């Protein structure tokens, strides 16, 4: 006999029994003595005699009940008779189960007699009807014998006993629900009875398939249900509550207790939430609404809720088998069993890890309910289901059964414990189906496996499947949630104790003797020595088996802390405990696996560094170490059933909130949470930068999830942008000789920095990301090194992995566009920079080629969107790095890709293929959108690269000169005349190629006195308006300046005398011929005269010839005689000509006019009738169509708790009360411009793209950027954006006149359509059909608009929670741009960038808007934390990308140059002169 057991039982700590009931007496003794107090008198006689009496009496009484025959009045008419029969019935209920019929009759009699408390039946004796409460108390006490387990009974008899018990419980439930006659004494007797039967059944250790196992869940559910009814009808006294608590603590080895405890707690919590926080608070959806009667007052609910919450004592005791087993029943088991030395070795205790997990999950469920994020699907499994360790069931990942399967013993009429009602939304947002495996099986399997000593649940089996770390999509916190301190006051003690399970911190205290006592943090969290005192503790109950419950507690604590509101304070003691618990929970195991506690912390701490938690940054090193395990490992092994993608997403959220910390805090030392006495050098924030940078790179390299990749790309751009701006600032502020003190190279030399960044297993060598030669001199985390690595990595993955995903491709191209705009400081530039940029452009071109060459089935709108985005990205690279076009290979590559986009094929094909000339190619672009983007790139190369900004500045890529401005420089033009119609009359207008309008002015400008042929041209094309003045010169300017014009220069002086013409006698042969002696051969040729004389025909011809010669000689002689008297007139030069037909000369010289075009079907030159009425108006509309995209961002400042739109816009009217950082921020978005003098986009069409002649009034304040006088503006060669800070709520504008023209909607055409509509293979890429393309969409055309009306808001929040109540609909009235055209904008369509300044000086970002197919744009990511220096560029890039994505996704969007081209075509149709070629030439020769 083990005497230690008695000592432990007698001296056990009774602290759990102290508390609110400590001064009240428990009724436990009454429960234990219940058998003796209600013993039947028949117990005094022998069993045989008593049984015979009982069988006869009971059979007779049962015959009158109306079960087998009609009911008859009871023969019992006096109290004595009834009491005598009750003694018999009491004994009958204690008979062995072999007498099942007798026991059944006893149960039937008592259940019928209890109907006296409801509507008495005819078979109920009259004394019971007259005084039902007294007899009911006795009957209830007697029924206790039915529930007493019998020994050595078979499973069939046990099942029969369970059926009878169910009958009794149903009757008692009915009475409790419906009876109006119950007195307080009866209520207490009923509750004591339920406590007694529960204690009888549940206190002993669990034995498989006994009656307690069959009835466990049922009796508990009835106990709690009737107890709640009693709370409403007759609130239990404190002794009853104390007795309930003591009994429940004896049943804690039963899983059903915790399930029913969770059930009642959550039902009561839902009611508490409803009356504490009102109907707007998120409802805790459960199915046990009928568990609480409607008559229960709010005070009663609150009292019952708190008392039930403390019913099972401290849940942490579930981790201590020696405490759970310190009951009389367990002691009796240990004493009566030979091979058991200690009660804690009972096999049923092996379920404690599962029980503990369910208890913690119940607490977590209540915490989530108070936070407004409760997920019903989790708690359904916690309450109604158990876990199984059946490996065969766990191995079925596709198991779809989600219904509760009860034990087979209870009948089908048994009332199941209700569970949560799971809405479809909660199912889709819950934990993955695979994590529910094993949760929906019957509880009998739990008991079956728990009864075997070797089958205890482990942390890697069924328990991990029950652990939940967060839904797939996070539910927003309730705005009206309680403060964190309040929740921690309620649940903090239990959660902290659970979080510190297995943590031994006592050995650290001696190092801190001279400081404040830290026992408040550690004393109660060190593992009690009692466990170490029990060497015989089963291996399945060691402290590490409770890791799942510990992980749940840590996750719950993280959710509580992340629920902190702006300005809310959390007690330092809670923060210190939390930081210590997280630090312990993130300890890295020797095998570097990601344990359940680490998963729980990471999954629930996404917002931890986005809140102003005091001292939270002491956790940065341990979080980075944890992320180094999760993010770089592609094949991460997890013990818990949590989605690896969700874990990585939560980790990336944490990473994005820590990236700016190193450069923000720089050399600030990160202090240890507890002084360990270590001599290690303290770590600074700056030393963490290489690790963070490598985390981003490594995570991005292996990431496969699109959303995670999008977040990492935004984080990567933040790293490069922040480092670049930081180094620029450092270059200015740091002394040039003190470069070694720069944070980027601090702590040690480059080698040590490299080793620091490579401190974990994954290789971070430079060749892992890019060329080695880029890393020779600079630290690997410098802006230049990051730029090179980011460019290499993103381009590589774009080509290899991301090209098939629309959103990831767009995000990658947006990042590359942003990188192109980042210019690293000159000291960091290397000769390899040009090679890196060239490589990036080459990769972009390869990407375009690959996408265009995909088979026709793969061509879709999404594919073409990626190609268009790639063309735009390529344009940005060339504009920002114009030196790339000086490279022959780069220029060839870019032009070939532009050719591919325009025509669909390259002229230079694969090696060995013939070169296709332009005349031989058939135009088959991938789509019209792709062709438009390629044209844009080509024009950008020819017009903008190296020339932007021009003399007009970035505000305009077109010339600011128009007809009126040009004529004001002519001498013949009145000085003050500004009439456009009059000015247009001076010009001749032609259209060439159907898309370029030429306005020709033949009058020379007044500032040019040189009388050369001069023509001034205004060229209006798809890509803007340009002014040129041309002169026809025969000499260069530097040589033509010395000439003079003499009035009569005279004949030139002869340089020498004219030589005399000598008289020469013509000879046919040389003189030497006559001196040669003739021979006979010479005589062989006859003389001419001889030949003539011999041939008459020749003789006649000769005579005719002689006559002609004589006649001509006579004519010439007469002519010479006539001219001998004529005096030759002296030659003089013609007068100087000052009027030229320069229009004709220009058109002819430039090949636009020639005489050899008779065979052309359509003339290339068309004259326009500028005298038409609306010509000037259409010309102005054309000039008001910007060749660049235009966007508007409206900025608002929201003070704390402001919800009225008028108050919000009024904030900017005065600088008082507005953060100075807000004004600093808006000035980093762009530069201020004056609306009346600004030629670009101003945020509203009524004031854009024109310069008002009148002087604008001087603004009273320089900070007024509401669009009335000033706006903030930014532009590049392709886009312009205005930043407006509204100060008034404006009424809706009428439709803009500018946008009222009938513009055709531009749609994509398929390859086949393009090929069939193309008539001329040699058609220029910029030429469209002369007729506008008709829209294919049916319906009114007024609903289609060539602009995309994208509404973008930037909202500066003083309190982050105000983003939930922003009146977007009202603020839309202050965001009119004139492009709406009556379209109704919904608040859900508005893209919003929220910025919240934290106490640390950093800013938290929150993005809101419709994701759609193209998602939210980068580089800003929801939840990202930014520094002030990088805020402006990142917000600007994100706004531009948001608008660009919206345009990509719009079916009706027309690029700017297409809008201008269509407008020109419309003007051609309206104003062209129908002229033949001769008529056109005649028109050109005539004067204007």
Secondary structure elements and pairings:
Blueprint: H1 3-10, H2 28-32, H3 34-37, H4 47-63, H5 79-93, H6 100-113, H7 126-130, H8 132-142, H9 155-178, H10 184-202, H11 211-233, H12 238-250, H13 255-277, H14 298-309, H15 321-324, H16 328-336, H17 352-371, H18 376-384, H19 391-394, H20 424-429, H21 443-450, H22 462-466, H23 484-499, H24 519-522, H25 529-532, H26 547-561, H27 572-585, H28 596-604, H29 620-630, H30 644-656, H31 661-665, E1 669-670, E2 683-684, H32 689-702, H33 706-733, H34 750-757, H35 783-800, H36 806-821, H37 832-852, H38 861-880, H39 888-903, H40 928-944, H41 963-967, H42 980-985, E3 988-992, E4 996-1001, E5 1014-1021, E6 1024-1031, H43 1037-1040, H44 1088-1094, H45 1096-1123, H46 1142-1149, E7 1165-1168, H47 1175-1183, E8 1189-1198, H48 1205-1210, H49 1220-1226, E9 1231-1234, E10 1270-1275, E11 1279-1284, H50 1311-1317, E12 1352-1357, H51 1368-1371, E13 1391-1397, E14 1403-1408, E15 1425-1426, H52 1428-1449, H53 1456-1471, H54 1477-1485
Helix pairs in contact: 4-5, 4-6, 5-6, 6-9, 8-10, 9-11, 10-11, 10-12, 11-13, 13-14, 13-17, 13-18, 17-18, 17-23, 17-26, 23-26, 23-27, 26-27, 26-28, 28-30, 29-30, 30-33, 32-33, 32-34, 32-35, 33-35, 33-36, 33-52, 35-36, 35-37, 36-38, 37-38, 37-39, 38-40, 39-40, 44-45, 47-53
Shape annotation: elongated
Largest beta sheet: strand ordering: 9-10-11-8-12-13-14-15
Radius of gyration: 49 Å
The number of distinct β-strands equals 15
Task: Estimate the mean pLDDT confidence.
Answer: 77
Q: What is the makeup of the main sheet?
A: 8 strands, mixed
Determine the strand fraction and express it as a percent band: 5-15%
Terminus-to-terminus distance: 129 Å
Q: Give me the number of helical elements.
A: 54
Low-confidence stretches: 1-15, 385-472, 507-535, 733-777, 1293-1345
Oligomer: single chain
Summing up helix and strand content along with how strands pair, one would put the structural category as mainly alpha
Helical coverage, percent range: 40-55%
């Amino acid at each position: 006999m083990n005497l230690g057991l008695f000592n432990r039982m007698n001296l056990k700590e009774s602290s759990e029994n102290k508390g609110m009931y400590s001064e009240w007496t428990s009724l436990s003794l009454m429960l234990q003595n219940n058998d003796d107090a209600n013993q039947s008198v028949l117990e005094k006689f022998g069993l045989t005699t008593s049984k015979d009496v009982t069988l006869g009496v009971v059979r007779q009484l049962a015959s009158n009940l109306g079960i087998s025959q009609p009911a008859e009045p009871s023969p019992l008419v006096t109290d004595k008779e009834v009491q005598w029969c009750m003694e018999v019935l009491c004994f009958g209920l204690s008979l062995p189960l072999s007498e099942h019929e007798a026991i059944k009759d006893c149960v039937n009699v008592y259940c019928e007699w209890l109907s006296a408390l409801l509507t008495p039946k005819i078979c109920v004796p009259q004394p019971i009807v007259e005084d039902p409460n007294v007899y009911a108390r006795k009957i209830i006490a007697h029924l206790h014998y039915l529930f007493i387990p019998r020994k050595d009974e078979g499973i069939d008899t046990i099942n029969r006993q369970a059926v009878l018990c169910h009958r009794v419980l149903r009757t008692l439930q009915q009475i409790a629900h419906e009876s109006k006659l119950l007195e307080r004494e009866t209520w207490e007797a009923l509750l004591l009875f339920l406590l007694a039967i529960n204690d009888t059944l549940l206190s002993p250790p669990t034995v498989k398939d006994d009656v307690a196992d069959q009835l466990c869940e049922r009796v508990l559910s009835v106990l709690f249900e009737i107890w709640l009814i009693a709370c409403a009808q007759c609130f239990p006294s404190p002794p009853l509550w104390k007795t309930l608590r003591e009994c429940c603590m004896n049943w804690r080895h039963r899983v059903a207790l915790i399930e029913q405890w969770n059930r009642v707690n959550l039902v009561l919590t839902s009611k508490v939430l409803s009356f504490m926080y009102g109907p707007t608070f998120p409802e805790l959806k459960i199915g046990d609404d009928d568990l609480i009667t409607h008559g229960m007052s709010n005070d009663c609910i609150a009292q019952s809720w708190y008392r039930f919450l403390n019913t099972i004592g401290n849940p942490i005791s579930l981790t201590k088998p020696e405490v759970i087993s310190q009951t009389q029943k367990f002691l009796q088991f240990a004493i009566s069993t030979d091979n058991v030395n200690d009660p804690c070795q009972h096999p049923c205790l092996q379920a404690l890890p599962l029980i503990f997990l369910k208890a913690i999950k119940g607490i977590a469920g209540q915490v989530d309910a108070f936070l407004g994020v409760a997920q019903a699907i989790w708690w359904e499994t916690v309450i109604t289901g158990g876990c199984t360790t059946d490996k065969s069931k766990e191995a079925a990942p596709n198991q779809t059964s989600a219904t509760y399967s009860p034990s087979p013993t209870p009948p089908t009429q048994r009332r199941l414990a209700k569970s949560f009602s799971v809405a479809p939304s909660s199912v889709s947002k819950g934990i993955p189906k695979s994590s529910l495996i094993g949760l929906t099986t019957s509880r009998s399997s739990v008991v079956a496996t728990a009864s075997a000593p070797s089958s205890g649940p482990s942390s890697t089996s069924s328990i991990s499947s029950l652990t939940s770390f967060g839904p797939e999509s996070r539910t927003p916190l309730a705005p009206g949630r309680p403060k964190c301190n309040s929740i921690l006051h309620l649940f903090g003690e239990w959660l902290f104790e659970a979080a510190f399970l297995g943590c031994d911190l006592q050995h650290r205290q001696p190092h801190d003797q001279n400081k404040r006592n830290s026992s408040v943090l550690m004393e109660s969290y060190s593992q009690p020595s009692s466990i170490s005192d029990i060497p015989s503790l089963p291996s399945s109950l060691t402290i590490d088996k409770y890791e799942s419950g510990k992980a749940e507690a840590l996750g719950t604590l993280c959710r509580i802390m992340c629920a902190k509101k702006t300005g809310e304070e959390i007690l330092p003691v809670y923060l210190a405990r939390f930081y210590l618990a997280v630090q312990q929970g993130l300890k890295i195991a020797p095998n570097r696996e990601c344990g359940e506690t680490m998963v729980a912390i990471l999954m629930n701490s996404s917002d931890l560094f986005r809140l102003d938690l005091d001292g939270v940054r002491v956790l940065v090193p341990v979080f980075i170490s944890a992320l180094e395990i999760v993010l770089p490992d592609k094949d991460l092994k997890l013990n818990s059933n949590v989605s690896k993608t969700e874990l990585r997403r939560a980790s990336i959220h944490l990473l994005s909130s820590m990236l700016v910390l190193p450069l923000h805090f720089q050399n600030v030392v990160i202090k240890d949470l507890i002084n360990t006495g270590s001599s290690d050098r303290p770590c600074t924030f700056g030393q963490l930068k290489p690790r963070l940078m490598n985390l981003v790179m490594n995570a991005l390299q292996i990431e496969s999830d699109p959303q995670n990749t999008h977040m990492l790309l935004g984080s990567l751009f933040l790293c490069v942008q922040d480092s670049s701006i930081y180094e620029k600032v450092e270059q200015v502020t740091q002394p040039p000789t003190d470069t070694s003190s720069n944070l980027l190279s601090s702590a040690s030399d480059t080698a040590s920095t490299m080793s620091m960044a490579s401190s974990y297993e994954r290789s971070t060598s430079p060749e892992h990301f890019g060329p080695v030669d880029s890393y020779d001199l600079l630290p690997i985390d410098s802006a230049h090194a990051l730029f090179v690595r980011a460019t290499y990595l993103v381009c590589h993955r774009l080509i290899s992995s991301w090209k098939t995903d629309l959103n990831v491709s767009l995000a990658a191209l947006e990042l590359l566009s942003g990188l192109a705009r980042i210019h690293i400081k000159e000291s960091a530039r290397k000769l390899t920079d040009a090679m890196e940029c060239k490589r990036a452009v080459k990769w972009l071109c390869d990407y375009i080629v690959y996408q265009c060459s995909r088979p026709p089935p793969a061509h879709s709108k999404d594919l073409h969107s990626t190609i268009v985005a790639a063309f735009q990205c390529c344009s940005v690279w060339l504009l920002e790095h114009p030196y790339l076009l000086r490279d022959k290979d780069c220029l060839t590559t870019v032009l070939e890709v532009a050719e591919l986009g325009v025509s669909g094929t390259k002229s230079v094909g694969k090696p060995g293929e013939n070169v296709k000339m332009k005349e031989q190619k058939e135009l088959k672009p991938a789509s019209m959108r792709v062709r438009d983007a390629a044209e844009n790139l080509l024009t950008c190369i020819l017009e903008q690269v190296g020339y932007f900004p021009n003399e007009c500045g970035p505000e305009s890529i077109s010339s600011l000169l128009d007809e009126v401005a040009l004529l004001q420089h002519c001498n013949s033009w009145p000085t003050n005349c500004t009439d456009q119609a009059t000015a247009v009359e001076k010009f001749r207008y032609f259209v060439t190629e159907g898309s370029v309008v030429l306005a020709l002015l033949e009058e020379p400008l007044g500032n040019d006195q040189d009388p050369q042929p001069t023509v001034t041209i205004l060229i209006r094309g798809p890509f803007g308006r340009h002014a040129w003045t041309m002169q026809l010169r025969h000499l260069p300017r530097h040589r033509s300046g010395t000439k003079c014009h003499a009035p009569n220069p005279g004949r030139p002086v002869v340089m020498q005398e004219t030589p005399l013409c000598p008289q020469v006698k013509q000879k046919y042969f040389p003189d030497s011929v006559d001196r040669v002696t003739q021979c006979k051969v010479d005589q062989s040729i006859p003389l001419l005269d001889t030949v003539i004389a011999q041939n008459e025909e020749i003789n006649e011809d000769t005579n005719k010839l002689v006559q002609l010669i004589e006649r001509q000689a006579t004519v010439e002689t007469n002519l010479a005689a006539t001219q001998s008297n004529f005096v030759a007139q002296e030659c003089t030069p013609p007068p100087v000509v000052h009027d030229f037909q320069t229009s004709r000369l220009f058109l002819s010289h430039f090949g636009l006019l020639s005489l050899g075009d008779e065979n052309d079907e359509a003339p290339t030159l068309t004259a326009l009738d500028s005298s038409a009425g609306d010509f000037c108006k259409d010309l102005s509309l054309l000039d008001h169509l910007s060749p660049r995209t235009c966007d508007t961002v409206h900025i608002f400042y929201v003070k704390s708790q402001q919800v009225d739109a008028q108050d919000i816009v009024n904030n900017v009217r005065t600088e008082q009360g507005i953060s100075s950082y807000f004004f600093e921020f808006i000035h980093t978005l762009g530069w201020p411009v004056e609306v009346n003098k600004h030629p670009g986009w101003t945020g509203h069409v009524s004031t854009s793209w024109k310069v008002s002649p009148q002087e604008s009034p001087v603004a009273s304040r320089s900070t007024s950027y509401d669009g009335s006088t000033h706006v903030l503006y930014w532009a590049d060669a392709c886009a312009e954006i205005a930043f407006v800070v509204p100060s008034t709520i404006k009424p809706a504008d009428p439709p803009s006149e500018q946008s009222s023209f009938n513009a055709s909607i531009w749609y994509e055409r398929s390859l086949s359509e393009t090929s069939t509509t193309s008539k001329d293979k040699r058609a220029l890429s910029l030429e469209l059909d002369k007729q506008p393309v008709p829209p294919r969409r049916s319906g009114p055309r007024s609903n289609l608009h060539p602009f995309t009306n994208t509404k973008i808001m930037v909202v500066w929040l003083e309190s982050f929670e105000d983003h939930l109540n922003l009146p977007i609909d009202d603020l839309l009235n202050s965001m009119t741009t004139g492009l709406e055209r009556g379209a109704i904008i919904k608040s859900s369509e508005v893209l919003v960038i929220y910025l919240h300044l934290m106490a640390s000086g950093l800013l938290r970002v929150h993005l809101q808007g419709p994701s759609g197919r193209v998602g939210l744009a980068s580089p800003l990511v929801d939840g990202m934390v930014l520094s002030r220096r990088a805020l402006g560029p990142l917000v600007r890039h994100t706004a531009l990308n948001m608008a660009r994505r919206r345009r990509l996704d719009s079916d009706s969007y027309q690029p700017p140059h297409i809008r201008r081209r269509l407008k020109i075509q419309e003007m051609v149709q309206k104003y062209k002169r129908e002229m033949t070629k001769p008529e056109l030439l005649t028109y050109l020769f005539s004067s204007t």
